[in-house]
Structure formats: structure tokens, C-alpha cells
Amino acid sequence: FEPVRIAPSLLSADFMNLGRDVALIEEAGAGFVHVDVMDGHFVPNLTMGVPVVKQLKKATSLPLDVHLMIANPLEQLPWFLDAGADYVTVHAEVLDADGLARALASIHAAGAKAVVSLKPRTGVGALAPVIADVDMVLVMSVEPGFSGQSYIEGSEDKVARVVEMARAVGASPLVQVDGGIGPATAARVAAAGADVLVCGNAVFATPNPAAALAEVARIADE
Ligand code: DX5
Ligand code: ZN
């Protein structure tokens, strides 16, 4: 039995007190720090980038889980790897099979873990070229772009399909879910096979983020 790990999303943290919030989630038992990088092109929103990842690397020993919601991951990947990203997520929507292979190769060559993500309307078939080589698959359960959105019902079915697809080729990547995950949704995605839950508002938009994190973890492991 592997406990489900929580990856709090810093997008919902207090940017004027980022060091404090990272220390808080580390102390509270988070498994990763989820860093949402948005470029204003692949998604409408614009968030943080390489300089923030560099600073985070010095501030925490938790693995940095860098979710690249950007149009040109192949160009920017080397910078994020240099900055200390431990897990790097690229979106299947912006890369063909060859691009995906190149992204995975460059992530692995840097000693980091490679993650491929699917937007809600992207079918699991997009994972076919990489399912045997990825370290983690990220299933988006909201349209990427903003924290605090509602979980898209049925996303857990996609989690189950990814688990099945991996099993069929003898692979066992971690499966991560991102978007609208909290006390009301953690149990069903965990039951479907999710290993890592990204939580933005469910952790940071609460009076006690440490307690909120522990509560989501408890519900997921029930
Ligand atoms: C959405 C981001 C998510 C988001 C999660 O585009 O990838 O990581 O910040 O926030 P919540 O948990 O509030 O949906
Ligand atoms: Zn994310």
C-alpha cells in the first residue's frame, strides 16, 4: 500500500510569503511542491517562471513538480532543468510524437522525472507514444489556466483508463490529478488509481493549510 501524496499548488499560495508557505507544506507532509508555469499563450493566464523555480530550489528539499503550461516546452525545458526542477510536466497538446520523445530524452538526460499531461478533452490515446517511458502522467480535471475551478465530473474515469493503458504495456507510471481536488473529490480519484493529488485552493484558501493538507491525504487513503 502506497499512501497518496499531496502536491500543493503554489498558485494558490501567498506570493508575498512564498518561503513561509513552502516551509509550511513541507512541515505538513506534502510530497511535492507543484509549480504552475503559464505563458499567456497555451493558457490565458501568466504566472511564474524560471527565476521562481531557482529560488524555490534553495528554499525546500521537497521535489519541485513543475507543470509547464507553455506553448514551446522544447525551447524552455533546459532552463527549468538547470533551475532545479525534479519533475517536469509537458502537455501532449503542444508536442507531436517526435517532440514528446525529445522532451522526455532531455528531461531524463538531466536526471529529472518526465511527466506528460492531458487537458480534459484530450484522449488518453495521446499518451500511446510515451506511456512506457514516462515517470508520471498528469490528468487535468479542469481546463488549465486558473486555480479554484470546479472538478470536471468523470475525470476519475480517465485516471482509470491511464492506469489500465500503462498496465497493458507493463508500465507503472505515477498518476497525478490536477484541478478542483479537495475533500469532496480526493476519494474518487484515489479509488480510480491516482497516486498524487495537486491541491491549490483546497490547501491554501483555508484558514489552516497544514490541517487541510492532512485532511485531503486522510480522505484519499480511506
Ligand atoms: C490549473 C493548475 C492547477 C491549479 C490547481 O491550471 O494547473 O495546478 O492551480 O488549483 P485548484 O486545486 O484550486 O484547482
Ligand atoms: Zn498544475
TrEMBL record:
Keywords from the named record: Carbohydrate metabolism, Isomerase, Metal-binding
Active site: 36, 178
Role according to the record: Catalyzes the reversible epimerization of D-ribulose 5-phosphate to D-xylulose 5-phosphate.
Primary enzyme class: isomerase
Species in which this protein is naturally found: Gordonibacter faecis
Record note on cofactor: Binds 1 divalent metal cation per subunit.
EC number in record: 5.1.3.1
Protein family per UniProt: Belongs to the ribulose-phosphate 3-epimerase family.
Name assigned to this protein: Ribulose-phosphate 3-epimerase
Gene3D superfamilies according to UniProt: Aldolase class I
Cofactor(s) required for function per UniProt: Co(2+); a divalent metal cation; Mn(2+); Fe(2+)
Reactions catalysed: D-ribulose 5-phosphate = D-xylulose 5-phosphate
Binding site for a divalent metal cation: 34, 36, 67, 178
Pathway recorded for this protein: Carbohydrate degradation
Binding residues for substrate: 9, 67, 145-148, 178-180
Domain of life (superkingdom): Bacteria
Listed GO MF terms: D-ribulose-phosphate 3-epimerase activity
